Known about the structure:
Elements: E1 4-15, E2 18-30, E3 35-39, H1 46-53, E4 61-66, E5 69-70, H2 76-86, E6 87-90, H3 102-113, H4 117-130, H5 146-159, E7 164-168, H6 176-192, E8 196-200, H7 204-209, E9 212-217, E10 220-226
Parallel strand pairs: 3-8, 3-9, 6-7, 7-8
Antiparallel strand pairs: 1-2, 1-4, 4-5, 9-10
Helix pairs in contact: 3-4, 3-5, 4-5
Amino acid sequence: MALLELKKVSKIYRQGDFEVHALKNLSLTVEQGEFVALVGPSGSGKTTLLNVIGGLDTPSQGTVHLNGDDLTQMDEKSLSHYRLMQLGFVFQAYNLVPVLSALENVELVMVLQGRLAVERRKRAMHFLEMVGLQDMINRRPSALSGGQQQRVAVARALAAGPRLVLADEPTANLDSDNATALLDIMHKLSHEEKTTFLFSTHDMRVMARAERIITLRDGSIESDETVQTHQ
């Protein structure tokens, strides 16, 4: 069974008398452990697709199955719990809590999951070390650079143990060294932990690491290619 399966998904936004067809009859299957880049011009539907997969937006028609569960049949409470336990999100805007330290930000999702304090601390320290921030665990976001904040956001997403990580332009604000380091970490996890990664990106550095590149245009899949990487 595929980890993720979309069948004939459409998303229509209404703006006054106009309809915007953000996704058009889109079908897609992603297996566990895949490292996938969604590419395409602005307005092609990449972010809408991530939002639908993440249960942040409801498709106008079609179904979204994750790990065998139909997200389109869940109420908001069930969806919220599902996102908490099964999904990791990495946003371009970081979305860190300003009053919490780096360590507390990484622990936050695990607090909501109900994990024990000892386990939370151990996992948070492990993933902060993986992203090279073990010496900055007590710093608040305002005392971290943009690249460091993004690494905290990645550590937070990974520490929660998601089956699927959805990342919307995760390297857009990073220099080459930071971007390469983060991609190395995520690529390693996809192989070692079978964590599945789905990126929305314009970044050639991400495309170079991706093992599958799905090109969207006008809300439809234009091409879907499995590629050989050198990693």
